[in-house]
Amino acid sequence: MQSPDMESETNHNFIDAVQLGSIHNHSKPGFNNQNINEANSLDKVRDILFGNQMREVEKKLARLEERFLKECASLREDSRKRLDSIENYIKQEVESLSQRIVNEQSTRDEGLRVLVEDNKKIITALEKKLTQLDDNINNTQRDLRDQILNQSKNLQNDILQKYEEILAVLQRESQDLRQAKTDRSTLANLLSEMAIRLNSQ
Fold first, then answer.
1. Could you tell me if residue 86 is inside a domain?
2. What distance lies between CA 38 and its chain's CA centroid?
């Protein structure tokens, strides 16, 4: 690249050349071979003065464009990789969540099945206990009825036996009274004795 002093000098030379060309153009009207030659000379001068700078600028622009295209391609590739990575991560997370949901649902179903089975077993055991308790109550009531009936029969038999014994005693005493013709005091003593026996029994 040229230094600022050289660029300034080049610019001055270019301005002088342009002014010179303008003078020649104004001094001779119309186009002729000389004008064409001067125009060609002016292009050559312009190329000499700015050709290197223009080529450098074009090279820089070409390098910038190439770099820009590379950066765009790299950015596009990096973006694609990042999106692919995010997509894969989301897919893995969704699959993991789906598997976790399936596992939890399976665990809950298994737990519910166990609870249902336990509930059935508890209900069956409770029904069995209630049936046994009902049978025990019925057996106990039957035994109590039998015991009460037996005790009632025994008590009736005892009462009947006591009644018969008392009746027999009364009959004996009555016969003895008739035979012995006892007086009233003997009869009173006999009745007192009978009353004592009755109270004792």
1. no
2. 91
